[in-house]
């Protein structure tokens, strides 16, 4: 069952990419679908990483919400960094802090680390076990719990539903 | 539509400019990477959206979406790899830094 699910996700992703790259004719669709199936068949042993993705309605809804939360944070982070860059005194207060994540799945952690990098003033430097080391442009709390609350929690609640 | 596309492209180029300025002004490699990563991601995305709106007749919207997804996935990964390499190579944080948990953990032997 789990194998079927990761194969299904793989085929959907490949086929979506193919559809976006080409125009919508039956011939192209058939060929793309066949190739997607073939590629997933070839790499069926390597697709285990997709097993963590959940496909229930709740996960799909949080995927959509997560996308919007993420884009909003990306805009905010750009504005934030731009303001710091323009202001003559360069108001930064940088440091590397340690945060803790509760996510178990590797794919979920990768998504979390990428999201952290693209959000206001934070940059993932190193991952070790359940701890992330994050370069923070404006350190406002110096213990693990406080930093975790202000950096990780916002994304984690959605990723937890998606990746479990 | 073409006007809107050009406008979004303009905003994207301003964002990219601010990113370049950030790389110039920030005091150390990690802060530079902060400015570099965020600004290039949003700048490139806006640039691509602007192009797809301004040249709607080329029918390249799907390709632009793929490019945006690719930039969103790879950009943070590369900056993470650079920051990690810089830290392992022992490049110091700026003197204005408040703390460095990673360095202290390394020295305590919690990390190899």
Largest interface: A-B, 39 and 45 residues
Please summarize the sheet with the most strands of chain B: none
Given as residue ranges, the uncertain stretches of chain A (5+ residues, pLDDT < 50) are none
Please count the beta strands of chain A (DSSP E, at least 2 residues each): 3
Distance between the termini of chain A: 17 Å
* Strand percent estimate of chain B: under 5%
Q: H/E element string of chain B? A: HHHH
| The number of domains of chain B | 1
Provide the low-confidence segments of chain B as ranges.
none
Number of helices of chain A: 6
Number of helices in the DSSP assignment of chain B: 4
> What form of chain B results from the Cα inertia axes?
elongated
How many β-strands of chain B, per DSSP?
0
Radius of gyration of chain B: 18 Å
Q: How is the main sheet of chain A built?
A: 3 strands, antiparallel
Which secondary-structure class do the elements of chain A indicate? mainly alpha
Helix-strand sequence of chain A = HHHEHEEHH
What general outline of chain A do the C-alpha atoms trace?
elongated
The strands making up the biggest β-sheet of chain A line up spatially as 1-3-2
Percent strand of chain A equals 5-15%
């Amino acid at each position: 069952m789990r194998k079927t699910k990761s194969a299904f996700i793989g085929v959907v992703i490949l086929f979506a990419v193919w559809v976006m790259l080409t125009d919508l004719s039956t011939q192209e669709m058939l060929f793309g679908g066949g190739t997607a199936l073939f590629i997933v068949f070839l790499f069926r042993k390597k697709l285990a990483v997709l097993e963590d993705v959940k496909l229930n309605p709740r996960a799909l809804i949080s995927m959509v919400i997560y996308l919007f939360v993420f884009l909003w944070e990306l805009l905010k982070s750009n504005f934030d960094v731009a303001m710091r860059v323009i202001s003559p005194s360069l108001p930064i207060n940088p440091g590397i802090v340690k945060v803790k994540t509760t996510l178990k799945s590797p794919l979920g952690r990768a998504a979390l680390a990428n999201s952290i990098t693209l959000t206001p003033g934070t940059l993932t430097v190193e991952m070790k076990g359940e701890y992330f080391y994050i370069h923070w442009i404006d350190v406002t709390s110096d213990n693990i719990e406080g930093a975790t609350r202000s950096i990780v929690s916002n994304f984690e609640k959605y990723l937890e539903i998606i990746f479990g | 539509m073409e006007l809107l596309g050009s406008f979004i492209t303009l905003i994207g180029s301003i964002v990219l400019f601010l990113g370049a300025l950030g790389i110039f002004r920030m005091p150390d490699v990690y802060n530079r990477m902060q400015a570099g990563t965020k600004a290039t991601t949003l700048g490139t995305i806006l640039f691509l959206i602007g192009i797809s709106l301004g040249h709607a007749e080329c029918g390249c919207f799907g390709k632009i979406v793929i490019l945006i997804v690719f930039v969103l996935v790879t950009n943070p990964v590369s900056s993470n790899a650079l920051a990690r390499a810089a830290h392992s190579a022992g490049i110091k944080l700026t003197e204005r830094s408040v703390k460095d948990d990673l360095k202290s953990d390394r020295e305590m032997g919690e990390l190899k």
